[in-house]
Amino acid sequence: MIGEASEVDPEHTLRADVCVIGGGPAGISVAAELASGSLDVILLESGGLAGEAETQALCEGEQRGAPQWPLDQIRLRLLGGASNHWAGLCRPFDELDLRERPWIPHSGWPLRPEQLARHYPRAFELCGISFDAFVAKARSGLLDPGPELRAAGVELKLAVSTPGVRFGKRHRGLLSGSRRIRVLLHANATEIVPGSTLRSVERVEVRTLGGQRFFVAARAVVLACGAIENARLLLLSKRVNPRGLGNDRDLVGRYYTDHPSAKPFAILQLLDEAPPPISSAEQRRTNPWVTALGLRPEVQAQNELATGAAYAFTFEDADALAEFEWMGSRLLAPGDDAVLRFLQQLGPKRGPVRAAICWLESEQIPNPESRVTLGEELDALGQRRVVVDWRLSDRDRSSMSRTGQVLAEAFGRSGAGRIKVWPWLFETAPDAWRHLFPGGWHAMGTTRMAADPSRGVVDTQCRVFGLDNLYLAGSSVFPTGSYDTPTVKLLALAQRLADHLKAELAGRLRP
Question: Does 403 share its domain with 337?
Fold first, then answer.
């Protein structure tokens, strides 16, 4: 059922098998799966069923480092969380994403690919997509770039687009109709309180903006508030450790990552006889299958590159061309007028040459100095706001530049076409990345998964090191984040966590 936190008696302690903090995709999927296994779940959501200015203001904070979107724009406090502005792109991890790569510092997941792969069918289903259809499409000829591009080291990467998947709306019937799930709206978790042994969580403190306080006690607690808020709540929970809960080694909040994006980074011209290896903007309006240009693993290794891909948009009608001309006028410097004039000549009238604009999306190389900490400013609940210091390194810059260069060289050698890379991508001045989009709204990595506590915050079951019953769900546990949207990936991890909790709690007594 769905109710209000204000309906709970002040200072009362609610009890359940599992307390899930956060009503976004990760939290909703964990709660739904646990309830199907006959476990009682309390799900705490800071917001309501729709956006509210007073609640949304709790997302505000200080930002440092690379240019970023405002924190109260990239995060949403209402049922469904960030899915309420999700573009809907779904793609599993590649095997390379999980491997330790000697040329990428701090890379490597402590999971084998098959440990995550078995959970993708359910993750896709939660988004209203058939995973079998995705696999069938991936095995079809759609992903063949042709012999010339294949020989040059180019591969096509498949994703499926499902715009409009809002988890709060899509799964509201399940949440409101379940006898096992109790959703409390406007319930802000303000502290995770450990028990006397310091080995487990005893209760969660919950406050409302109206000043009410109550507690939730559960056999297991799952923190599923997103990478920024997961780290913040651990850092705020310092009753035992002044550094924060699970932060004995000062790793909570570190390795904050997003997806650096160069939008646009190049113009692609395809020869008439070459089959188009890309999805056009027009096709995406009616066809959910999206292809991007990437580099084969051996090419990435040879050039020591982070994972990246180029999404191309062809100009098959005047509307698409006009849209990019507007974007170009907004992003390009005055010295790039020649590029704008070139773009204005593109389109069907070009005859034998087809053209596209390319956006480059990249994995961020893990950086311990890129981090989430607590500031001195307080929010309406009296809690310290976050400071997000997003650090992009010279390695991130050089990897994106080199990826663009290698793709351009591959197309040139193949004879399939030409890629004209924007010169700014190769500049080294401090302000050279003025065209860099300020992240992809994909916060990740602040409570990374590791095989031992010296390298991360949670173990392979997403359990916080040193605590028997505190788990983290969502992209905060990602050691690396690939180059594309994390939603379906974090859903697969959430399903894996839910399966573990069902087995783990089966033999334990209820509180």
Answer: yes
Does 180 map to a domain?
yes
Residue 486 belongs to a domain: yes
Q: How many other C-beta atoms lie within 10 A of the C-beta of residue 450?
A: 20
Tell me how crowded residue 101 is: count the other CB atoms within 10 A of its CB. 19
Q: What is the pLDDT of residues 96-149, one digit of tens each?
A: 999 999 999 999 999 999 999 999 999 999 999 999 999 999 998 778 888 888
Asked whether the beta carbons of 43 and 31 are under 8 A apart, the reply is: yes
Determine how many CB atoms are found less than 10 A away from the CB of residue 345.
10
Which residues form the domain of 30? 1-69+79-125+164-251+444-511
Domain count, the chain: 2
Residues 418 and 450 in one domain: no
- What is d(CA 396, CA 275) in angstroms, rounded to the nearest whole number? 32
Residue 370 lies in a domain: no
CB 59 within 8 A of CB 77: yes
Three-state DSSP state, 302 = helix
> Going by C-beta distance under 8 Å and a sequence separation of 6 or more, which residues neighbour residue 345?
none
Three-state SS for 214-245 is: EEEEEEEEEECCCHHHHHHHHHHCCCCCCCCC
Q: In this structure, are 202 and 279 located in the same domain?
A: no
Shared domain for 144 and 59, answered yes or no, is no
pLDDT tens per residue across span 438-454: 788 999 999 999 999 99
In terms of domains, do 175 and 310 share one? Answer: no
Q: What is the pTM of this model?
A: 0.91
**How many alpha carbons fall within 13 Å on the CB side of residue 184?**
23
The beta strand positions in 1-123, using DSSP E, are 2-4, 13-21, 41-45, 62-65, 89-90
Q: Domain check: are 203 and 301 in the same one? A: no
The answer to whether the beta carbons of residues 175 and 2 sit under 8 Å apart is yes
